[in-house]
């Protein structure tokens, strides 16, 4: 082909910069539209705000917590089981530690758990799902049977088994849950890929000479991202609940570490008189899980519209 | 702006100044902008237009299939002397089931896959337009007495009339067991069961193969004649429109741009859009085909000012941008919404013919000739 | 003498039908059942058929998206029926395809620019060169750089199909398989796309296999036309011949069923003979002549003997027992004064109207 077309086309510097601005404006508009759609739903914005506030507070816990030293082994029996006051907005626990400070540090552990479980589970699940959906046949049969088997084990029971076989620590609990979490993503991704696989754009890429890696990761994966992202957001809430549940029955976060579930568990002993000890950590769990769920629902709406437009 | 409507004073369906808009996330979409149309008694009328011209929305507005909001509907729709827009829902439903029938585009999704064809047809025969039937009465008529058997008999008869092979066994089949052509026949039978006066058909048979489509159209023509039906048909295929209709409305950008009796419309289309459309259709004669119309259909969120076709029109000038053209009557039974035919304006062009427009658009040169000249040129 | 670019010889593609718990093969869908044709370089061949005729399967088998059950595919003199890795790479360089649905053939998460880029990226063309070439290609399909960062959902059907075409020609293939490239588009847009394809063919010396169900579209576009029914070609020959004097009852029925827009065109259609019934399932192909169940001319022989290709009167090849010298009158000729002249044109043209009778597999 001759270069005539480009010479005749828009290759002068001025027109190019003009074009660049048009293009970047187009991209901005695209994001602006998505953002606009997102913010048009108060629920999802509230969800996002909750998560942002919690994450920031948890990260800055050593700075923003009124009594950072209360996060660990600290006792001040004189101040035990005091109700909410200016000094202790959410009261103190049975050994005199500030509940608010311990909740903020508790959030750190919860979020870390989310990070570890999903950080391991999602990539593994997505890759397995891609491979199963793309290749089909025996590969798919083997991966999916394995997935089904793993799915049959409830994460809570698995965590109980592992922690009692090894040691009841947070790490072991996380390990147990992560070892099962990928299955959901494998199922999700495999079902999407199996249907995307037959789309003509995949055939077009194959005809263009693209190899399996390109087709899987560059063509199909981007089309599975929005449901994955929605699922990850909803998952986060789930993982927090399971972590809290494990801590509650004593196989997760171990005292004196400030696990939210551990705190609820300890606090129940002092109900109903010292209600703040159990209720506020419980509320803390509720708010964060709620935040993730609201954000997940909001994201789903944004993506649905975008794709079906 | 109102067109001197070609049909006498007593059309079975008439639509006056219909406006339909939708409130969407991006703003207000003005999808149908002042549509006038009418169907005379015993007349077969087609609304033809390309994707996104507003023809389906017009039909849905007539049949009250749009939920308001988001839709905003204004205008007057009259069926056999009854104003439909102000009619209570119950009465409208009765009218819709008994005197107006519709055939939808997709023969699969219009039939319920969980009931046999016979059940569905008998239900239509017994309860079509009777959505207000009480439970007791329903049970009585459905299960007691001979009414159900009669209804089934009528259904079989109707299937025979639409030339369904082996109607008795079709009655016992589920829709998924039938081929596309047979499903289309079932839908036609269903539409005609209650002997309606007006049939509204949306892209009938579009999804079918050429030879099956041909069978269905031939059948439909016979049925229209036998049942003395008035028909409002919607299609994107001008060839199909020509085959069955007496008169055609051409829609573009939410407006009727031209109407004329079928023969006149194809022999001498007047609106530049109609001309472009007719010229774009590949021809069996082997004559070169015109190169299509430049540009694309208007955005309804921000439609062009004046005549909505002006950005794509080869004859557009200042007046077209400024004002919506009036509908200029052509004889007693046709009209065109274009300034080129307006005596009061000094149009800078003579009104174009189909041939001038074809030449204007440029043609896709006949291949063998071009190849030959190319070879000579090298 | 023009050279043959693609030759398909007795191509078969059967899809197994599996049923039961053990997924045993209980039958075959004979999607393509003995198809032979060849296309000369720079020519356009149209493959016409209704749904279930196997026309798209032919294309997908040629490019290797399906594996052939039987027969041979020759591309530029090489047997590529069961291509080796290298052959496949070479084929991908030289044969490209444009799909029917402009929407599903573009990745919804890729911008126009990155979609067109894929074939070049895969072949290791350096980035700056790719950018330049993409602009060039957009120009070539009558779009411009403003489209680079748009997503498919922002484009109209016609624009999407232009992008698909740009992607297909980005690596300068020799053969383009066009699988109903305009059937999802409106007529005014369809005309534009056909015009574009004709321009590109001339500029880039492309060879087309054009698959469609729309006969009138083919009339001007294709040099040769083959009419498929239930996995088999029933009639093939120079387009003008097939249109002016369709010999096979099926070709005649197809042609007579087209809704046209002028009286003049009506006179170009054969006598209207509506077909009986519907297309049988390709799982259960009728014995003898597979068209006989719908044919108005069926005879006793049709049921038992499968007709072979014959060129009864030196024109197109026809698979029909009924059509012969004696019956020729039954098949009224389209009353067209220009027809004979047109036919003479093609035959004196030399070369372009020729095809090998030897490729007949029976």
Task: Tell me what the structure shows.
The complex is a heterotrimer of chains A (309), B (378) and C (362). With 309 residues, chain A is an all-alpha fold. Chain A has one domain (35-63, 90-308): MetI-like (MetI-like fold, Orthogonal Bundle), CATH 1.10.3720.10. Chain A is 75% helix and 0% strand. Chain B folds into two domains: 13-252, Rossmann fold (3-Layer(aba) Sandwich); 276-377, no CATH class. Chain B has helices at residues 55-62, 89-98, 117-127, 135-143, 147-161, 167-171, 180-192, 210-227, 238-244, 262-267, 272-280, 318-322, 354-361, 367-377; strands at residues 13-24, 27-39, 44-48, 71-79, 82-83, 100-103, 198-202, 230-235, 247-252, 255-261, 289-290, 327-330, 334-337, 363-364. In chain B, strands 6-7-8-3-9-10-13-12 form an eight-stranded mixed beta sheet, sandwiched between helices. Residues 366-378 of chain B have low confidence and may be disordered. With 362 residues, chain C is of the alpha/beta class. Chain C has a single domain (4-101, 175-349), classed as 3-Layer(aba) Sandwich (Rossmann fold), CATH 3.40.50. Chain C is built from twelve helices and twelve strands. In chain C, the strands form two sheets. An eight-stranded mixed beta sheet of chain C has the order 6-7-8-3-9-10-12-11, sandwiched between helices. A four-stranded antiparallel beta sheet of chain C has the order 2-1-4-5. In chain C, helix 3 crosses helix 4 and helix 5 packs parallel to helix 6 (187-204). The longest helix of chain C is centred in the middle third of the chain and has 18 residues, at 187-204. Residues 335-362 of chain C have low confidence and may be disordered. The chains are: A mainly alpha (309), B alpha/beta (378), C alpha/beta (362). Chains B and C meet through helix 8, helix 9, helix 11, strand 11 and helix 14 of B and helix 5, helix 6, helix 7, helix 9 and helix 12 of C.
């Amino acid at each position: 082909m001759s270069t005539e077309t480009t010479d005749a086309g828009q290759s002068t510097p001025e027109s190019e910069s003009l074009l660049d601005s048009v293009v970047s404006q187009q991209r901005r508009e695209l994001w602006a539209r998505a953002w606009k759609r997102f913010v048009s739903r108060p629920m999802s914005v509230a969800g996002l705000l909750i998560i942002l506030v919690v994450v920031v507070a948890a990260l800055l816990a050593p700075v923003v917590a009124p009594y950072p030293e209360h996060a660990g082994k600290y006792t001040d029996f004189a101040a035990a089981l005091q109700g909410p006051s200016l000094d202790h907005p959410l009261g103190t626990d049975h050994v005199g530690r500030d509940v608010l400070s311990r909740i903020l540090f508790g959030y750190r552990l919860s979020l870390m758990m989310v990070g570890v479980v999903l950080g391991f589970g999602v990539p593994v699940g997505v890759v397995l799902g891609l491979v199963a959906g793309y290749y089909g046949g025996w590969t798919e049969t083997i991966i999916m049977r394995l997935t089904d088997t793993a799915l049959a084990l409830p994460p809570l029971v698995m965590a109980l088994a592992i922690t009692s076989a090894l040691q009841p620590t947070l790490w072991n609990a996380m390990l147990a849950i992560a070892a099962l979490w990928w299955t959901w993503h494998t199922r999700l991704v495999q079902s999407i890929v199996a249907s995307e696989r037959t789309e003509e754009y995949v055939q077009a890429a194959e005809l263009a000479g693209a190899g399996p890696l390109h087709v899987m990761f560059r063509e199909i994966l981007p089309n599975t991202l929005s449901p994955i992202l929605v699922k990850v957001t909803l998952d986060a809430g789930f993982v927090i609940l399971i972590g809290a549940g494990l801590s509650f029955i004593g196989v997760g976060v171990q005292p004196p570490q400030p696990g939210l579930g551990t705190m609820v568990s300890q606090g129940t002993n002092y109900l109903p008189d010292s209600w703040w000890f159990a209720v506020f950590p419980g509320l803390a769990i509720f708010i964060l899980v709620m935040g993730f769920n609201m954000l997940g629902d909001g994201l789903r709406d944004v993506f649905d519209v975008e794709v079906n437009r | 702006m109102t067109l001197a409507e070609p049909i006498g004073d007593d059309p079975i369906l008439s639509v006056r100044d219909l406006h339909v808009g939708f409130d969407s996330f991006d703003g207000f979409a003005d999808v149908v902008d002042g549509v006038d149309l009418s169907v005379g008694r015993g007349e077969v009328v087609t609304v033809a237009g390309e994707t996104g011209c507003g023809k389906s929305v017009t039909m849905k507005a007539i049949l009250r299939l749009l939920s308001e909001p988001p839709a905003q509907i204004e205008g007057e729709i009259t069926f056999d002397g009854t104003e439909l827009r102000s009619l209570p829902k119950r009465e409208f439903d009765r009218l819709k089931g008994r005197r107006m029938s519709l055939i939808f585009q997709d023969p699969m999704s219009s039939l319920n896959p969980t009931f046999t064809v016979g059940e569905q047809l008998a239900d239509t025969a017994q309860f079509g337009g009777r959505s207000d039937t009480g439970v007791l009465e329903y049970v009585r008529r459905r299960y007691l007495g001979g009414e159900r058997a009669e209804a089934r008999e009528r259904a079989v008869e109707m299937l025979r009339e639409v030339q369904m092979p082996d109607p008795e066994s079709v009655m016992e089949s589920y829709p998924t067991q039938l081929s596309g052509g047979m499903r289309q026949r079932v839908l036609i039978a269903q539409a005609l069961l209650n002997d309606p006066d007006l049939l509204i058909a949306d892209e009938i048979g579009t999804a079918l193969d050429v030879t099956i489509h041909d069978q269905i159209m031939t059948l439909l023509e016979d049925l229209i004649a036998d049942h003395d039906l008035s028909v409002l048909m919607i299609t994107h295929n001008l060839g199909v429109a020509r085959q069955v209709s007496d008169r055609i409305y051409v829609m573009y950008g939410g407006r009727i741009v031209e109407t004329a009796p079928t023969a006149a419309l194809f022999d001498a289309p007047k609106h530049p859009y109609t001309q472009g459309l007719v010229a774009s259709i590949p021809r069996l004669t082997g004559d070169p085909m015109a190169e299509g119309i430049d540009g694309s259909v208007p955005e309804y969120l921000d439609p062009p000012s004046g005549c909505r076709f002006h950005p794509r029109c080869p004859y557009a000038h200042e007046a077209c941008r400024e004002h919506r053209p009036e509908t200029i009557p052509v004889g007693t039974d046709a009209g065109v919404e274009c300034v080129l035919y307006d005596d009061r304006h000094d149009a800078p062009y003579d009104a174009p013919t189909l041939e001038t427009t074809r030449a204007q658009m440029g043609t896709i040169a006949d291949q063998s000739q071009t190849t030959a000249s190319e070879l000579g040129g090298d | 003498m023009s050279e043959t670019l693609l030759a398909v010889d007795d191509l078969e593609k059967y899809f197994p039908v599996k049923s039961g718990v053990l997924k045993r093969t209980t039958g075959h869908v004979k999607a393509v059942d003995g198809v032979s044709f060849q296309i000369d370089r720079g020519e356009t061949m149209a493959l016409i058929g209704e749904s279930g005729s196997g026309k798209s399967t032919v294309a997908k088998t040629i490019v290797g998206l399906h594996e052939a059950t039987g027969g041979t595919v020759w591309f530029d003199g090489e047997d590529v029926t069961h291509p080796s890795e290298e052959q496949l790479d070479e084929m991908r360089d030289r044969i490209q395809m444009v799909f029917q649905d402009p929407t599903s053939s573009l990745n919804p998460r890729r911008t126009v620019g990155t979609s067109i880029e894929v074939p070049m990226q895969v072949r290791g063309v350096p980035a700056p060169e790719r950018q330049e070439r993409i602009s060039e290609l957009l120009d070539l399909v009558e779009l411009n750089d403003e489209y680079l960062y748009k997503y498919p959902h922002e484009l109209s059907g016609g624009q999407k199909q232009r992008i698909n075409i740009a992607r297909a020609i980005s690596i300068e293939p020799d053969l383009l398989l066009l699988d109903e490239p305009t059937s999802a588009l409106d007529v005014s847009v369809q005309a534009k796309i056909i015009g574009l394809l004709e321009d590109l063919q001339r500029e880039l010396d492309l060879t087309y296999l054009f698959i469609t169900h729309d006969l009138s579209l083919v009339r001007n576009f294709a040099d040769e036309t083959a009419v498929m029914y239930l996995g088999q070609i029933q009639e093939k020959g120079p387009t003008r011949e097939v249109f002016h004097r369709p010999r096979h009852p099926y070709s005649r029925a197809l042609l007579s069923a087209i809704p046209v827009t002028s009286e003049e065109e009506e006179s170009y259609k054969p006598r209207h003979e509506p077909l009986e019934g519907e297309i049988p399932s390709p799982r259960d192909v009728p014995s003898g002549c597979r068209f006989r169940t719908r044919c108005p001319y069926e005879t006793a022989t049709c049921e038992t003997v499968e007709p072979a290709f014959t060129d009864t009167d030196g024109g197109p090849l026809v698979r029909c027992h009924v059509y012969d010298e004696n019956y020729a009158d039954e098949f009224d000729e389209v009353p067209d004064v220009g027809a004979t002249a047109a036919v003479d044109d093609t035959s004196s043209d030399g070369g372009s109207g020729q095809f090998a009778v030897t490729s007949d597999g029976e």
